């Protein structure tokens, strides 16, 4: 909580205070992003989307302000910023982010277990992860792992290698379902990725973090020094 206006605090923000009408708040703070359209309840307005800041305004039954709180409570958006829905790449890995709020990463790997091992039928496999995508800010995505598995690499109709339909248990001991990555786009058009546990603690991994090194590149801004050949 950063700032509070309530009946015990004699202050205002942008000419708003306890008792202000819903219409005056709407006029000054803009369209609400969550909460009831009228009457009592909490209504959230954007303060600074980049920083995750929002105004949480509590109204009474008459539509008058009871409390205004400036907080880090901006609801995540599922509307992908322009250019985010694409295939990102790293040597041996690609990440496809779709417009429907989902993403999938396919990383080449080797099982070393051979045919009939209960893993991939061939030596070369793909470590596959499915994600749910949310948008904390205009330049950052949050990719939460929803499934993780291994699959054989197969040749697709366009000549590229992709994960086959067979699924085997993941051998990635560093990334679990529920963990999440942040993908932050930098000024050069490429992105910096960071892995976190489900409870928000940054995780340290041995080599690649599963989605970068920690860089991941867009095809039109590929930097070999960051993302390989």
What does this structure look like?
The chain is mainly β. It folds into 2 domains: 69 residues, no CATH class; 141 residues, no CATH class. Helices cover 5% and strands 41% of the residues. The protein is built from 2 helices and 15 strands. Strands 6, 7, 8, 9, 10, 11, 12, 13, 14 and 15 form a 10-stranded antiparallel sheet that branches. It has a 5-stranded antiparallel sheet with strand order 1-5-4-3-2. β9 and β10 form a beta hairpin.
Summarize the topology:
Elements: E1 3-5, H1 22-29, E2 32-34, E3 41-48, E4 53-59, E5 65-71, E6 87-90, E7 93-97, E8 102-110, E9 124-137, E10 140-155, E11 161-163, E12 168-169, E13 180-185, E14 191-196, E15 215-216, H2 224-227
Antiparallel strand pairs: 1-5, 2-3, 3-4, 4-5, 6-7, 7-8, 8-9, 9-10, 10-11, 10-12, 10-13, 13-14, 14-15
Which characteristics define this entry?
ten-stranded antiparallel β-sheet, 229 residues, 2 helices, 15 strands, five-stranded antiparallel β-sheet, 2 domains
The fraction of residues in strands falls at 35-45%
Gyration radius from CA atoms, angstroms? 23 Å
Choose one word for the global shape: elongated
Poorly predicted tracts of residues: 5-11, 112-117
Number of helical segments with 4 or more residues: 2
> What is the domain total for the residues?
2
| Separation, N- and C-terminal Cα atoms | 46 Å
Number of strands: 15
Q: Fraction of residues in helices? A: under 10%
Largest sheet: 10 strands, antiparallel
Mean pLDDT value: 77
What's the SSE pattern?
EHEEEEEEEEEEEEEEH
Question: Which structural category fits the helices and strands?
Answer: mainly beta
């Amino acid at each position: 909580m950063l700032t509070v206006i309530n009946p015990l605090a004699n202050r205002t923000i942008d000419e708003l205070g306890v008792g202000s009408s819903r219409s005056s708040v709407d006029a000054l703070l803009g369209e609400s992003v969550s909460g009831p359209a009228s009457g009592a309840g909490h209504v959230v307005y954007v303060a600074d989307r980049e920083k995750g800041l929002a105004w949480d305004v509590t109204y009474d039954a008459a539509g008058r302000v009871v409390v205004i709180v400036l907080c880090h409570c901006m609801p995540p958006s599922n509307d992908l910023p322009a250019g985010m829905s694409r295939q990102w790449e790293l040597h041996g890995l690609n990440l496809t982010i779709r417009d429907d709020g989902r993403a999938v990463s396919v990383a080449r790997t080797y099982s070393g277990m051979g045919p009939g091992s209960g893993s991939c039928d061939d030596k070369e496999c793909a470590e596959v992860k499915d994600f749910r995508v949310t948008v904390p800010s205009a330049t950052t995505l949050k990719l939460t792992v929803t499934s993780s598995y291994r699959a054989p690499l197969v040749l697709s109709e366009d000549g590229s290698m992709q994960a086959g339909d067979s699924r085997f248990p993941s051998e990635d001991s560093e990334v679990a379902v529920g963990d999440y990555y942040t993908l932050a786009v930098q000024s050069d058009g490429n992105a910096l990725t960071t892995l976190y546990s489900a409870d928000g603690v940054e995780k340290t991994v041995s080599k690649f973090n599963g989605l970068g090194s920690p860089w991941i590149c867009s095809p039109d801004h590929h930097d070999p020094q960051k993302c390989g050949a």
